[in-house]
Each structure stands twice: as structure tokens, then as C-alpha cells.
Amino acid sequence: MDSMLLIVLAILLVVILLALFSCCIYCDYRYYRTFMILKNKVFWNVFIRYTLQSYLKMSFTAFVSIQLMESGNRKRAFSSVLAIGTVVFLVVAPGLYAFILWKKQKDLFLPTVRDRIGSLYQGKREEETSGRVFVVIYLLRRLWFVLLTLTLVS
User: Inter-axis angle of helices 32-41 and 2-27, to 10 degrees?
Assistant: First the structure.
């Protein structure tokens, strides 16, 4: 359970570092080339595939950790903050993936786009709306299942 949260932390760290580095571009344009090299080296399909495959486990882990939070326990403070960050990511992920697919909808058939974000629509037809919406419905359905299960248990 803790190793999965550490993997999520590593993924979030990479995304945050890229976001911070992209902010540095606005301050000094000399960093643009370095940013583009780093951005192209990141294999987004790995992160996307990890999210899709372990979304249910991450959801259960994060929500159970939040339910077990104690206000005065310092030993579990890091775990609690990590669980809250994971929940925020899990709630935002379907919308983020929908935005990415909407933004790239005209280029989904290109090999370069397929290499970068192909896990979002793998096995689906790129030109059909159902192929682009499937992953969003899939993630929302899993999130709803976790919330319903934890509500019924407690």
C-alpha cells in the first residue's frame, strides 16, 4: 500500500517539476530547448497506463487512508497528505484525460501522438467520439464504485 503511494508521489513529482520548469520558460526563453527535450523524454504512456491499471487500488487506498486519518498523529501526517494529494489527482484525472483527448482529437491517428498518449484510446477508433469518451467513463465508473462501496461499508 505504501509503495503504491510512493510511486504516485514520484509521478506527481515529475509532473510538478515539468510544470515548474515550464514556468521558468516565461522568465527566460533560453530554457525552452531544455524544457522541450525533457518533455519529449518523459514517456506519458507509462504514467497513463499506470493510472488506468491501478486506479481502483489507488482509490481504495487513498479513501481508506483519509477515513483513518487522526488529527493529532504526526506519524501518519505524511501518509495523510499523500492520500489527500492522491484523491485530488484521482478526481481530476478523468477531466484531465478528457481535455487531453479533446485537444488532440485531430491528431490521434499520428504515430507520434499514439506513442505519447496512445494508452488513452488503445483499441478504440480515434475518429469516433465513443473511443475518446471511453476512458473517462471507465475512470468515473471506478471512482463511483469506490465511493459507493466505502459509503455502504461505513
Answer: 150
Q: Which of 92, 145, 97, 141 is nearest to 121 (CA)?
A: 97
Domain count, the chain: 1
Residue 90 neighbours by CB distance under 10 Å: 20
Burial group, residue 140, by CB count within 10 angstroms (0-12, 13-18, 19+): middle
Q: Grid coordinates representing 65?
A: 487512508
Give φ, ψ of 8 to 5 degrees. Answer: -60, -40
Does the residue 73 lie in any domain? yes
Q: Looking at the domain assignment, is residue 142 inside a domain?
A: yes
Query: Could you tell me the residue range of the domain that residue 85 belongs to?
Result: 43-153
Does this model's pTM top 0.70? no
For residue 99, is it within any domain?
Answer: yes
pLDDT tens digits for range 24-40: 777 777 777 777 777 66
48 within some domain: yes
Q: Which residue has the cell 516565461?
A: 26
* pLDDT tens digits, 40-64: 666 677 777 778 888 888 888 888 8
Cα angle vertex 93, ends 91, 109, to 5°?
155
